[in-house]
Amino acid sequence: MSYWLWDTSLSVGIDVIDAQHRRIIDYLNELEVAKESADRDTVSEVLAGLIDYTRTHFLFEEELMTQAGYTLSDEHKATHDAFTAQMINYVRQHESGRDVTRKLMSDLRIWLTNHIKRDDKDYARSVSKIINKGWVRKTRDSFFG
Ligand SMILES: [Fe+2]
């Protein structure tokens, strides 16, 4: 049983963004498995992957918003930055031996659900106007390549 399953209520209507959100959710499910196995090294590895992927995803979204001339991109970036700082804080606590995995998972799930449904869906109309397959491929490869 997965910790969290993506469903269409989380779709922003842009395939490349939905795929990235689904990958973040997959990371949380991997974290659940690692946590259940009580293997600290695996938890550390999944956490590192999760943080790295999420930061790259945020940068990708920020590039899309800038390119689209989305008016609230500064506010959106500030929200990303604040949440990134919170996740890094959890990783530091994990590294110092505290068991914060569950708290991180539930915070990320609540934060991402609200963020997708409110903030990401808000930029989708602007961003979908500039998006086309060639442009997405080039931009995605430059971030995730
Ligand atoms: Fe976002």
Short description:
By secondary structure, the chain is mostly helical.
Protein architecture, described:
This protein has one domain: Four Helix Bundle (Hemerythrin (Met), subunit A) (Up-down Bundle). It has helices spanning 15-36, 40-68, 73-95, 101-130, 133-144. The mean pLDDT is 92. By secondary structure, the chain is mainly α. Helix 1 packs antiparallel against helix 4 (101-130) and helix 2 (40-68) crosses helix 5. The chain has 5 helices and no strands. Helix content is 80%, strand content 0%. Residues 61, 76, 80, 115, 119-120 line the site of fe (ii) ion (FE2).
Shape: elongated
End-to-end C-alpha gap: 31 Å
Structural class determined from secondary elements: mainly alpha
Any low-confidence stretches, pLDDT <50, length ≥5?
Answer: none
Number of contiguous helices:
5
Under CATH at level 1, the class stands as: Mainly Alpha
Question: Which keywords apply here?
Answer:
0% strand, 145 residues, binds fe (ii) ion
